[in-house]
Amino acid sequence: MNKYDVAIAGAGIAGCHAARNLARMGRSVVLIDRRETSGLGHDWWDNVNMGIYDEVGLPAPEPPELLQGNINFKVFPPGQKTFSFVADTAGKMNVDRKMLAARQLRYAVEAGARFMEKTAALAPVVENDRVVGMVARAADGSKIDIRASITIDATGISGALRQHSSAKYGFSKYISRSEMFVTHREIHKDDARERESRVVFGINNGVQWIHREQPGMADFFAGFINFPGRPRPRDIVAGLLAATPDVKPNLLRGGYGAPIPVRRGFDSFVADGFVLCGDSACQCNPIDGSGVGSSLRAATIAARVIHSALENGRTDVEALWPYNAEYKRLQDASFAQLHALQMFLVSQPKKLLDILLGRGIIKPRDFWGTGKAKQESALGRIIKLMKMIDNPSFIFKLVDGMSTAKKANELYMQFPEKHDPAEFEKWRRGVNQLFATIPPALDAPAEMK
Fold first, then answer.
1. Residue 376 — φ and ψ, nearest 5°?
2. d(Cα 143, Cα 135) in Å, to the nearest integer?
3. 311 close to 169: Cβ distance less than 8 angstroms
4. For the CA atoms of 335, 336, 339, 343, what is the dihedral angle to 10 degrees?
5. According to a count of CB atoms within 10 Å of the terminal CB, is the N or C end of the chain lower?
């Protein structure tokens, strides 16, 4: 049996960054992942706000990890043909996820963390209602008992450790279908001279795109909320490729997808001796599923709080609570606002989103959620642009929906700063009551409404 200060399951964005920071603080850290080292990171790129690297103390990426193509694409509502916008992506650059993963793991190991590849987390070890480590399966099939003062689940949406934990702490064992994206992505060779990138929001209760910013490559993606009866993302991507005759099928990267949580973060990310981070905590954008920046932000906060707790000889919920409080205000308030907006939009006829985007009431930047809970409110735009709306019946829906989103932001900014079970339960009731006022999705089956 091995004993560490911190054991981390999952060597993704959040897990590697937490391991690196904690090891640099002098903590003994073990980091495990079910994949082998060469399999870490997605086989594509994602656009990332460059400011996050300075914020979390990471060196900014450089070529070839930093891709040189310009991010410049048009955004369309579900109707596609009526309106389009050039997206405001100032400060964002495309980053190769495989290279980012390799760099983050290197940083963690250089800082002193022990990395165990092809080692799958199976379940937490719990003693007296406190997590004291985890059981894992090694590449040879043998079981390993890893003990730690604090254990972090950064295994992604599956929550390999979370799914064996008690929901009483404020997080769920599983993520519901209505709060999950299913996706597929393919990057093909593209030698065309005329290159236009386009993103369609709201179609099939999700997003699809053709990005052609990178020279010689065309990036096809489809992702939808996992309602029964939805189309298969793979089929949509095949249709997009077939409808783009100047791109010949020649797969360069990707060719697969991954489930992504598209909801606000769990009500809490901590239990006694246990912490959630990254997708396992649902810490990604509820509109488009992006989560590099928010996962780095969460891991930075979590590592600092864990180090402080261990300095004081504590591993209890109260000592870990500052991670909750800081992240909720810094990031999750804006994501809660986006989650309310997403739920409202899928509850309305698709032509409403055509109006919202087409008349500038909601702008593409409102979907990114990259700020620290300081997004510009669309409510003021509604008032200014009411006269432009052809159907007055939409006005009340708009005001109500945007008001709910704004209230979600405000409620998350009021998250209890200190651990007080009564205050926390009061806050949770308020959150549940607010989100319960949003109508069910139009396309959801009756049993999900």
1. -65, 135
2. 7
3. no
4. -170
5. N
